Known about the structure:
This protein is mainly α. It has one domain (2-21, 29-71). Helices cover 71% and strands 0% of the residues.
Amino acid sequence: MRKSLRTSLLPLALLAAFTLPSTMHGQGCSMCRDATAGSAPQTRKAFRRAIPLLGFPAIAIFSGALVLARKIQPGRD
């Protein structure tokens, strides 16, 4: 019961984190700030949408590595 609850709450938490961008505060990387400083409003809007979207591949790779680490047990053949 506990594991199924955790696996169902994790996607909901990630969905909430990425659909509520007004509550999220990025780290403010200087390249993004410099790229959008003199840009048109449409470009700034595109950057605001694209930056959180870039988190999905990183999350997928990290969670895949965690799943593999949990499945592989040292010393077992």
